[in-house]
Amino acid sequence: MKLLKEKIESEGIVLSENVLKVDSFINHQMDPVLMKEIGLEFAERFKDEAITKILTIESSGIAPAIMTGLALNVPVIFARKRKSLTLTTDLYTATVYSFTKQESNEITVSNKYITKGDNVLIIDDFLANGQAALGLASLVEQASAKVSGIGILIEKSFQPGADDLIAKGYRLESLARIEALKEGKVQFAKDRQL
Ligand code: 5GP
């Protein structure tokens, strides 16, 4: 997606060979115009999947997810990150190891909001090792619902998450694919469909 790549090029900060900082338009300050376009782009890419729900994880996935939900006219659910759980009867849970925080989080979603028969589109900001996406997919599958696709804003293609999700049979759509973060510069990979 041209607009997102331009934004990454002009405002993204390469923190290391593995981490890109995008605090000025995704992770801290947010760009509503960009988010609106992202929502429209995901809606177009997944228009034939009969999506009934969008699932993301707090907090940075919420903005693109809500714009996609608006464009597809479906509800948006965000999984919560919790340390300990006392009440487990009405929750689906999965353990996710956080790439950036280097700690494990228990993520949860109420069984009220994802149910059998739902076609769920998972949205997240970054894809690195695929832990967040796999945790979200697990929540969907615990509900006997279907993961109809995974939409990612920024895929770091040099990390194993993307290949892993595809090998597991999930449909993955990434709006910007990064081949390398070298010498302070972002090198983009080609779009997967082209
Ligand atoms: P994964 O679970 O695929 O290993 O990592 C994805 C999660 O880690 C995303 O939800 C995102 O919050 C965070 N993340 C991974 N890599 C980066 C990065 O390079 N920059 C930022 N800002 N977040 C990242």
From TrEMBL:
The record's Pfam families line, in alphabetical order, gives: Pribosyltran
Q: Does the keyword Magnesium apply?
A: no
What biological-process terms (Gene Ontology) are attached? purine ribonucleoside salvage; xanthine metabolic process; XMP salvage
Pathway as given in its UniProt record: Purine metabolism; XMP biosynthesis via salvage pathway; XMP from xanthine: step 1/1
Q: Where does xanthine bind?
A: L20, N27, K156
Keywords tagged on the record: Cytoplasm, Glycosyltransferase, Purine salvage, Transferase
| GO MF term set | xanthine phosphoribosyltransferase activity
Q: Where is the Phosphoribosyltransferase domain?
A: 47-168
Q: Does the keyword Mitochondrion apply?
A: no
Q: What EC number(s) would the UniProt record show?
A: 2.4.2.22
- Principal place of residence: cytoplasm
Question: Which residues of the sequence carry a binding annotation for 5-phospho-alpha-D-ribose 1-diphosphate?
Answer: A128, N129, G130, Q131, A132
Listed GO CC annotations: cytoplasm
Q: Where in the cell is it found?
A: Cytoplasm
Reaction(s) catalysed by this chain, per the record, are: XMP + diphosphate = xanthine + 5-phospho-alpha-D-ribose 1-diphosphate
SUPFAM superfamilies, per database record = PRTase-like
**How is this protein organized at the quaternary level?**
Homodimer.
Query: What does the UniProt function comment say about this protein?
Result: Converts the preformed base xanthine, a product of nucleic acid breakdown, to xanthosine 5'-monophosphate (XMP), so it can be reused for RNA or DNA synthesis.
Q: Which family does it belong to?
A: Belongs to the purine/pyrimidine phosphoribosyltransferase family. Xpt subfamily.
Do you know which HAMAP family this protein is assigned to?
XPRTase
What is the official name of this protein in its record? Xanthine phosphoribosyltransferase
